[in-house]
Design goal:
By secondary structure, the protein is mainly β. It has helices spanning 11-30, 191-194, and strands spanning 71-76, 89-91, 99-100, 106-108, 112-116, 127-135, 142-149, 158-164, 173-178, 200-203, 219-226, 232-237, 243-248, 264-271, 286-296. The structure holds calcium ion (2 copies). InterPro entries: ConA-like_dom_sf.
């Protein structure tokens, strides 16, 4: 997460990446052979053989290695008694926790910040998909986010799967990749940019139709990367699979969590800086229906 910042640093670069990334993502992730259109005329006709042909004996072959499959390494549906804390998460020091609402959602309220108790350090080549279904606050004073944290102070590789300032703020909802934190936002100096660690951020509010913006409707948000690779892919889908957007970072190995320190998930709901707060809205909490982490390990060398 940026620290109370509405700026969209690096946005023009990102837009170029979004276009190229969309095509590749769709080609690799969204099209399966089973969904290809098929006309009746494409299917060869079958005739009954008039005589039985005995096939030649074929020597047995070794089975090809099974293709890697997605495996679930983390899942939380947030079922449980209202008012109780989520079992797989813990609050960060100095912050409020979050509680189950008794209806199957996690209520991430005022000044909450929690971290997944499990973390993951995975072999190079492992594909990782972080997903969540949630609805954002609709106020002008809350700043809520789901992010992947790579807790190396000297080498932060934060991925903002989705974050939102709500409908009353210009930044709205956005994606992000941070390699550095500017602790002096009000000094007029971009310290991160000065050391070649500019954030990539992209606003996505416009990708959602009126009436189903991120603070009006639950959406499924995904971030996907391969350990050791150089891009992070993003997408949002509704519960029926309809796509709101796809996006990708520019190629840069520093934007993908490494396998040196375990990465964790974080959910947070901060206040925007008092001078930036806008009065309005009713829903102060981010409500999270579920969070999942899936991995696909690289094919074993045979
Ligand atoms: Ca600064
Ligand atoms: Ca749920």
């Amino acid at each position: 997460m940026t620290r109370h910042s509405d700026t969209l640093v690096g946005r023009s670069l990102w837009r170029a990446a979004v276009l190229g990334g969309t095509l590749l993502f769709l080609a690799t992730a969204c099209v399966s052979p089973g969904s290809w259109p098929r006309k009746i005329s494409d299917i060869p006709s079958v005739t009954s053989p008039t005589e039985t042909v005995v096939p030649e004996e074929v020597p047995p072959t070794t089975q090809p290695p099974a293709a890697p499959e997605w495996q679930e390494v983390f899942m939380d549906h947030f079922d449980g008694v209202a008012g109780t804390p989520p079992g797989q998460w813990h609050p960060m020091t100095g912050w409020n926790g979050a509680t189950l609402n008794g209806s199957g959602q996690l209520d991430v309220g005022h000044l909450s910040q929690i971290r997944s108790t499990p973390g993951w350090s995975l072999p190079v080549g492992t594909q990782v998909r972080v997903s969540a279904s949630l609805i954002m606050p609709d106020t002008g004073s809350n700043y809520a986010a789901l992010w992947v944290q790579h807790p190396d102070a000297g080498d932060p590789r934060e991925i903002d799967v989705i974050e939102s300032y709500g409908p009353l703020k210009a930044a709205g909802a956005q994606l992000g990749s941070h390699l550095c934190y500017d602790e002096t936002l009000d000094n007029g100096v971009d310290e991160c940019g000065a050391v070649g660690r500019t954030a990539e951020l992209a606003g996505v509010s416009h990708s959602f139709a009126d009436g189903v913006k991120p603070w009006q409707s639950y959406w499924e948000y995904h971030a996907e990367f391969t350990v050791g690779s150089d891009r992070v892919w993003f997408q949002a889908r509704d519960g029926s699979g309809n796509l709101a957007y796809t996006a990708a970072t520019l190629p840069d190995v520093r934007r993908v969590p490494g396998n040196v320190v375990p990465f964790h998930l974080r959910l947070s709901n901060k206040d925007v800086a008092p001078d930036d707060a806008v009065v309005g809205g009713e829903q102060h909490s981010m409500l999270v229906d579920w969070v999942a982490v899936q991995v696909k390990y690289p094919t074993a060398v045979g």
